[in-house]
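Ticket 4471: requesting a sanity check on a complex prediction with arginine. Repro inputs:
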Amino acid sequence: MKLWGGRFSKNTAKITDDFNSSIRFDCRLYKHDILGSIAHAKMLGKCGIISEEEASLICRTLEEILRDIENGLVEFDTEAEDIHMNIEKILISRIGDTGKKLHTGRSRNDQVALDMRMYLKDEIDSIKAMIVDLIGVLVKKAEENLDTIMPGYTHMQRAQPVTLAHHFMAYVQMFRRDYDRLSDCYKRVNVMPLGSGALAGTTYNLDRYFVASELGFDSITENSIDAVSDRDFIIELNADLSILMMHLSRFCEEIVLWCSHEFSFIELDDAYCTGSSIMPQKKNPDVAELVRGKTGRVYGNLLSILTVMKGLPLAYNKDMQEDKEAIFDSIDTVKACLPIFTKMIETMTVRKNKMYEAVKKGFINATDLADYLVKKGVPFRDSHNIVGRLVAYSIEKGKNLDDLTLDEFRKFSEKIAEDVYTVISPETCVKQRKLPGGPSYETVAASIQKTKEIFNIK
Ligand code: ARG
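Returned structure tokens:
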């Protein structure tokens, strides 16, 4: 007999049970479902809707069920549809009529909204902790590479010299924003929906604030229809996770490039690479590629939930059950990617000399040469043109700018003097970019210090 079987004269078809059932994926909500029920039962007792004895029997038994599930002693039942009815059924099987009182003043619609909010709060916290670990590693690597000069790129062409520290700290800014986005999302998840019933609240005089404070919620939802219909907190989280994955994926793309023979800027630790079944020489950056690849499924999940929700009339519709596999998968994916990505970065070797070799070629000091002429009184557009011609000349001669003799320089501009060589050295190019936000040693060191304070990194 189904818990809702009263108005039915026939059993549901087996195929309907299988199709309808969400227990195979929502079983992960068991702990939050039970803790939510305990708070609800306590409140029912406190408000005199059930007796205190009944409430405490229900709470004790729910705690037992929680322990049993954690010890692997409970098998869930597809016929009982979802985690909410599975737990309730087990409760009733243990304490009979008293167990039947738990669902007083509650619907699965507000119950599932509560469970998801509780579950997501925990997951947001754990993802935030993983981001802090990653930021910690990046900051440490940045500290070790404050004076590791490398080419910065635009259009994948060598552009201007930066440092590896500056480059890594660019990602730190992105991950800081990801962290902040999650904190912000948390605020909207942290609202307690129980008491909204199926959609129209309930006639019992429930103490919603009591339930909220028992469960550590900041506030309660303001409209019962919205509370059971709203999934935007799930969509928002998935959107935040998509942006986070996009950042990881860009970083992965660079890791893949940098450990290629063509770049050789870094070497990944053997423990985070794999080989080829046919080519004995291969050491492949599979971890980085997989993180980049898995970004697609997190985006897909976002689109999937958005699409599920777009045509739904208020209030609850069963379509909404489809939110779960999508957001669960996004969370699992992010939680699988972040720690291994962090390890991969932590253990990689930076080939400072290779980066420096790349800095020496590609005319990345051309802007600095143009600026040098500006400081000697040449208007920028003219100096840009002079240096452009100097670059063309150097390419023809197979030289770098700093290989040119003073005589060669002076054929292009009389203003160029002996001091040009210091000015266009990669070290000076970086050192002179000391304005806020720039790549100079001091600026980046200050940014590292600030990040360490924000995240309490030792
Ligand atoms: N398993 C359902 C879900 O995930 C729980 C809510 C069911 N409510 C209902 N009225 N059938 O959405």
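Notes from triage: Residues 58 and 99 are 6 Å apart (CA to CA). Leaving this open until the requester confirms.
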